[in-house]
Amino acid sequence: PMMRGMAQELESLTKDNFASESWGGDKWPQSKAAAANSRKTLYATGELHDSISTQSGNGYARIGSNIKYAAIHHFGGTVKAKNKPYLMIPVGDGFRKVKQVQIPARPYLPLNADGQLQPGGENKLLQVALDALSKGV
Q1: pTM score
Q2: β-bridge mates for residue 64, sequence order
Q3: Lesser CB count within 10 Å: N end or C end of the chain?
Q4: Running DSSP on this structure, what letter comes out for residue 6?
Q5: Contact 49, 42 (CB under 8 A)
């Protein structure tokens, strides 16, 4: 039950990050597409947000996404054309051909690339553990 509670808290922190467009209060760089369309960054279709899932068991609590582009948005990186000589990037009312595009890191999960919990995350997980222990779980 304690690990299930921790997994639920990790999911809650993640949903808060999507809602605030930040990682523990550190704002993400806003995407040009989101700004142009008056929508939230990382929320074009809601698919990434809705793909967040958790698992828990004896001694572990996990959170993640099975969407293939989830990692590039969380960690950032360079997307290069693979099967064609260029990528087609939407710009205004048209498209632009580029060989690669840099995606800035927008960590939405409560753990960053270094495995550190986001600010405030440790206290929330400790509270879950203390609550479980005080109930004798």
Answers
A1: 0.86
A2: 53
A3: N
A4: H
A5: yes
